[in-house]
Structure formats: C-alpha cells, structure tokens
Amino acid sequence: MGNGNFDRTLSDQDVMRRRATLLQRLHVDGILLTLLLVLASGSLFVLYSASGRDWDLLIKQASSFGLGLLGMVVIAQFEPRFLARWVPPAYVVGVSLLVVVDVMGHNAMGATRWINIPGVIRFQPAEFMKIIMPATIAWYMSKRSLPPRLKHLAISLLLIGIPFVLIIRQPDLGTSLLVLASGAFVLFIGGLRWRWIIGAVTAVIPVAVAMWFFVMHDYQKQRVLTFLDPESDPLGTGWNIIQSKAAIGSGGVFGKGWLLGTQSHLDFLPESHTDFIIAVLGEEFGLVGVCLLLLIYLLLIGRGLVITAQAQTLFGKLLAGSLTMTFFVYVFVNIGMVSGLLPVVGVPLPFISYGGTSLVTLLSGFGVLMSIHTHRKWIAQV
Amino acid sequence: MPQPIRLKDHEKDASLVRRRVIVGAVVVVLLTLTLVARLYYLQVIQYDYHSTLSENNRVHVQPIPPTRGLIYDRNGVIVADNRPSFSLTVTRERTGDWQSVLDTIVEVLQLSEEDRAIFEKRMKQGRRPFEPVPILFELSEEQIARIAVNQFRLPGVEVVAQLVRHYPQGEHFAHSVGYVGRINEAELKRLDPVNYSGTHHIGKTGIERFYENELHGQVGYEEVETNARGRVLRVLKRTDPTPGKDIHLTLDIKLQEAAEAALGGRRGAVVAIDPANGDVLAMVSQPSFDPNLFVTGIGFNAYAALRDSEDRPLFNRVLRGQYPPGSTIKPAVAVSGLEAGVITPDTRVFDPGYYQLPNYDHKYRNWNHSGDGWLSLETAIMRSNDTYFYELAHRMGIDRLHDYLSRFGIGRKVSLDMFEEAEGLMPSREWKRARYRQAWFPGETLILGIGQGYMQATPLQLAQTAALLANHGKWIRPHLAKTIEDQPPVDENPIPDILVRDPKFWDYARNGMVQVMHSARGTARRVGETAAYHIAGKSGTAQVVAIRQGEKYDRNKLQERHRDHALFIGFAPAEKPRIAVSVMIENGESGSGVAAPVVKQVMDAWLLGADGQLKPEYVPNAPLENLDGQR
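^ inputs. structure came back:
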C-alpha cells in the first residue's frame, strides 16, 4: 500500500516532468502556445460574426491556422545558428522576388503584390520580408560590436531601404512600414545611441516641412492631408473611419452581445472581417472584450521580451526583440487606425483579421522565437 | 561547435539589450494604455452619442453635387444653365425587395415594360451602399402626387429636387456647346468616384465635354443622421461643394442667328473667326437638333429618328465634315508658290482651256473650256483659273506643296478647345505609300493645286485658312471659350506662324481675292457689287461624285444629293480684316452663286450698323495698297 502510494506520488511528478520534457523535446514554448490557442479560438468567434456567419470563411481561417502552427513547430526545430546561416541567401532571394513583382506589376500596367504560378503556388514576397528583414539585420549586427557604429548603421539602413522602397512601390504602405519597423527595432534593441535616434527624428521634421513648401504639388498635399485626417474625406477612406468609430462607440462597456452588432452587419462597415474586424469586436463585446484582447496581446509580448532577455546569442536577442516589438506595432497601428487615432494603412489585426498569409507569417515569427528559446545550451530559470 | 563567445563583451551586450528591452516594455505598456484610453473615450464617454447614432439607424455621408458652371455667349446671353427638376430616386437597401418596388412604381405611374427595363439598368449603376439612385427625371405634378399618395407602398422611394442642365437657346448651339447626358458605364470606370459621387450627368460633346473638368466643380458632402426609413433627422457636419467654373464663349448669338438665317434652311456649315484673336464668332452646322432631349435621356424612337434622318442633324459638319477644299485653297497655294520661289507676281501662264503634263496625253481641264489666255497670278485667282494652278503645282512638286499647305493647318487639328475635331487630309508621298502601297503620280500633284484629289479639309480649317490669309500667317488656334472664370484659355501646343520672305506675298493673294468680288471679271462680282465694303473672297466646289474624262458635269442628270458642295471663304474689310468666314453648302453646286451670298450676309451682320454702313470702329483708316488690277 505504502509502496503503491510511493509509486503514485513518484509517477505523478514523473508525468509532470515528462510533459515538460515532451514540449521541450518538441521545442515548443508552452506559454506562447497556450496564448496563441486562446487567441485563435477567440478569433474564430469574432470572425463568424464579422463574416456574416460564413462557415466556409471560418474553415479556411481555421485551416490556415493549423498550417501556420505546423510551420511554427517545424521552424522551432531548427537551431538559431542554423537559421542564421540561411539568412543572407534568404535576403537575396526575397529581394529578387520583390524585384520580379515590381517588373511584373509594370508590365501588367497595374499594381500587383502577388507572385502567382498557377496551380503551383501563389504568395506575396513582401510577407516573407517581415521575417527575413529583422533576421538579416540581426545577423549583420550580431557579427559587429554593440552599440552599432555609424558605418554599420549606414549599411543596415541600406539593407532595410531596398526592400522598403520595393514594397512601397507595389504600393503597400502598411507592409512596407512593418518591414521598416522590424529592421529598425533590431538597431534599437542593439543599443543604437539615443542621440542618433533623437537626431534622426528631429532631422525628419525640417525635411518634411521643406518638402511641404518647396517640393510637393497641391494635389499631393491634399493626399497627405487626407491620409493624416481621413475624416476630412468622408466619401473615401473617411467613410470607414466614421462607421467604425460609431460601431466601437455604440458597443459601450459590455457590448451588444455576440452576433448582435448592428453597424457591422448592415454593410455599413466595409472590410469588417479583415482590417476593420476590431470594430466588430468592440461593438459586440464592448470595452471589456477589447481590453481582454489587449491583455492577451500584452502577455504574448511580455513573453517575447522575456525570451529576448534570456536568449544566449546576440543574434537570438536581436531577432527575438525585433519580432516581439514588430508584433506590437501590428496591434497598435491596427487598433489605432480603426479607432481614428492613426492614418489608415493596411495593417491587419494579428490572429483576428481574416487572411491566411498574414497568419502563416505571424506564426512563423513565433516559431523563430521558440527556436531561440528552446535551443539554449543550459536552461536558465524559466 | 558553439560559436566563440568573448565573455566580457557578451556580458556588456546582454546588459545593453536588457536595458533596451525594459525601455521597449515601458513604451509598449504606455502605448497600450493610450489605446485603452481612446477606447474608453469612444465606448464610455461618447457612448450615448454613438449609441444614439447606432439606434437611429446610423450616420450617412451624403455627397452634395457641385452646381455645374454656366455658359454664356460673348455678350453675356445665357447658353446653358441649370434648372430645378424633380426626380424619382430609389435607395436599394431600404426597399426590401427592390424588384417589386419597381413593379409598384410602374403600376402607380402607368409606365411601360420598356421603362421598367430602363429603371432596372439605372438601379444597377448605384455605386455606394445606401446611395439613392435616380431612375426617373422631370416628374410632372401629377406623377409627384401619385407617388405621394402611394408612398406607403414604396419604401426607399423618394422624390427629390435636382438641378438639371438646360439649354435655353435650343438648337442654336447644339454643335458648339454640345450637351450633357447621363454618365454611362464606360465613363464610370474612368471618372474619379469621389468627385462624381453625387453627379449623374457629364459632358458628352462640344464645350460641355471639352471643359468637363472646369464646368463640373468639386463635390461637397454632409454627414447626416437618418432614421430607419432613411429620412434625414439632422445634419451633423457639412462641407459645401465648389461650384464649377462659368465659361464665356467667343460665339455671338446674334451672328449665330444671322448665319443660320443666311443658310436659309439649306444643309451646310458656317464658321466665322475674328482673325485678330482667333475668337470663333459663329459656328453653325445645319440642320441641328435640340440638345435638351439628351440631358435626361432621349427616348429610343426619338433618337432613332435623329440618327437615321437623311439630313443627318447629329452630324457636326463644321468639325467632322471633310471636303475637298476645291478652288478655295488657291490663295494659299499662291502664297506657297511665291514663298517657294517657283513663281513671281509677274509670272505669266497661257491658258488654252486645258493643261498637259510634258509627255502625257491626259488633258487637265480648266473649268472654262474656252481658256482665259495669258494670266498673271492675281488674274488667275480672280478668274479661279485652273490651268495656272496646275502649272504652279507642277513647278512646286508634291513635297513642297505638302509642306507649305500643312502650315495652313490642312491635315491637322487646328482648334484649341473643340471636341472630336477631324484632321482633314493633306496627302504626301509617304501617306500614299502607307495608304495605297503606291507611288505618287505627277497628275495627283496637279489636281492638289486646285484643291481636288485626296486633299480634305473641314469648314473650320477653311475658315482658319481665310483667317491666316487675313492676318498674314499669324497662328492663333480658333477657340470657343473666351474666358473660363475670367481666365482666357491657354494654348499649350501653339502652331508656329507662317513666315514668308516678303510680306507683300500676302497682299498679292489678297488682291486676287478682292478682284474675285469687286473686279468686272471676278467670279463673285454679283455679290461684291452689293457690298458696302471691300471683301476678299474665293469660291470653290467640292465634288461629290467623280466625273470621267471627257464627260461634262450635267446638273440635270445628277440626283440632288450627288450635286457638288458649294464652298466659299473670305474676309472683310479687305483693308483691315475683322472677320474671316467659311461657308459650305451641301449639294449647293456653285461656290460663287450660292455660298458667296451667305458669306456676305454673315459679314454684313457683323460689320454693318443699323444704318447699313460699316460700324465706325470697323472703318479702315487706310486704302488698299497695290490694288489696281493692273500691276
């Protein structure tokens, strides 16, 4: 009896240990995985409502999520050192694909973001730059001393600038800004001197003012003004903002209830299941719902920052930090624009907005984070 | 192998990164709090506001279409204005079943299935959600009453007042000002969807089309709160539209009417230009049509009648009609020959009644088969002698002829602001090779000298040729808009002036043209005799059917529609030209007999005062130079 009791206690602990080791052996971070699963299941509820109860859409999103999880786990299996080795060729291939898209777009007399080989594959090269970009700068800076010197900074900016310009020409302002941010965050995490940061910011202001008065035409100024203040153009982009504000505002503290939103269901809100999905969430689940979502995001970001701090290699630190901060930019820019704080740029709300490509890219990013965290040579306190 | 780690550096790097991570975390938290604050503001502080908007069925943004710019003639007489008119609109989202609502409308207004098909087509042009789409225009009092009585059966249907284009002058300006019509699907694709969000009409032809951007203006909008039935409860915010610009035309309605009267119901075209500044004073293409028919959509039968009429009222003869210029081109050929140096004013040519190329049998006939004997340049113009100009064209050759006559605007668009102007045709060796895969024949050069053959010109180009002869080759593109919101139109692509070695060349051509009107042997002396001032003019005929070698033109054998077109160009007063005119009369046969009196009537209307004398400001202050007929 005593023996059996002893056995049971032991095996209990043993099972606990084995579970931990199973996740570790799979190189999956339990905390991140749990948060991601919570987000994903929540997102399906919102999407069901936002899409007007479209089961097909829901199944597509769910399968994209499954595919993304698989990709995440696969990526997590590779050691960061192995990933680092493949970064430079990946960068070259990524930029080449962007050039191909640029040339195709011009030949087709219109903008395109896609590379499409019918029957084989169809994807946006710009999406992959969201991961390749920070990895490239992290790879480059990890071989240099910190904080970055002027020369290394210049080279980094060049590396960021090429894909940035190519993506902005597509034109895809949202993605290009995310790519720019992901590269810049590496430099920030790497200890870019404060006076340079402040200097760059203060230099932008007079340049912008000079451009405004001496370079730009009236119609360009008008476009900038509309961009900065979409509500001044209520027949164009302002329409979305006016409607999304009304949707969010009418949700109140507790919301109107799932599937009971009115604004978003009467075609008032265009793109209600993609970029503007937070308006549906705000209307149906209220302030409480949005805050809960923000909390989950904060936990994810917190975990990302812990991984950054605990990473053992410089490459790992820089890359993990940048991926985490970029993730926050997604969240901030999307909610900011839908609630009328920021200009409208096409940035989806991570894990909630409908869209397979962005889901796969985001999850790949978390795969990289897990790879960085689970391939350490000695386990520090978790 | 683990990569080499320099322990000291590693520690330093790690602490640097850790510090940056902390900064990042603080920023993340602060920005997240900003978002929460924003959401708190929207969802708690502004809750009542947004909630009410939402309850009362939400906010709408309604575009306010700008008022289309008005069009005046040169004296300020209104040519195109906007009239309030009642239209029936349907907002699809409010109708429930819009198909059955359409059925009800058709039933209530007792319309036909054909009308219903049109409604359905118009409904499909709706662009934004909750946009009221107008489906029926110019409602009568009775129709408004019928809709009002049946309003309960017609959810989403409204009677609205709109400003609709109106042309008080009717037919007078149909071919110059043109008209607006409903935006069609092709136009919808190329238009700015925002600026045209409240606009249902767009310029289709003429000035309305050419100056569409200026006339349209900038859209305004209002944010309104509506109830569930779509009725506007209050306006939350309003931005006024910028009305379109007003246009003052160069056309003069009195001259326009005089020119139409001078045509006297015949099919034809009249263009009058002020040679000093390129203002088009009159532009008539007869028969015409009522542009008001097209504004709200012309019925199928009415349109078919216009389109299929043998008189072709929709055809703009001034801009689209292309005719061989005939003898009217001779003064321009004369100036070209003088400038090219192949003739001098004293060159004499003997006319036996025909011309033969060396080594060819073919006889190119003068219109006067008995021949005019020895001719100088001015006499040749006066007599409209063909033989002289065969010889002149032969000496110049096709290349130089093409080069010089192109400078007069033949074969190119000459106007500044006219929609769909035809280019005419000034043939060349290259053109013939490309068009017919044939070499150029010398005989073809000869008949170009008398304005026949491949050459084609529009009445506008002929008037411009007259204006160039009047103002000594100074190019000002003829234009219809005098000012657009007080700004004169700008020519972005000016045509270079025609420069000649000796300005007297122009005088020789003019003298020949004056003799046409005022000399005892001039071809149009009967018209010149009655003039109160000196006219410089030149007649011409444009063949409609070809005449075979040796065959005589016999008017009795030809059907009326196959008779030659009568042409005439001229300017006056010859001493100091104030008006240049071209006239084309379809199947009129005789330039000097039929077209010349029209030219003189138009000139009289412009130049003469009530007393039948030249208006004081038009009296030339110097007599004609070198005009005596015997040089």
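The radius of gyration of chain A is 23 Å. The mean pLDDT of chain A is 82.
thumbs up if we can close this ticket
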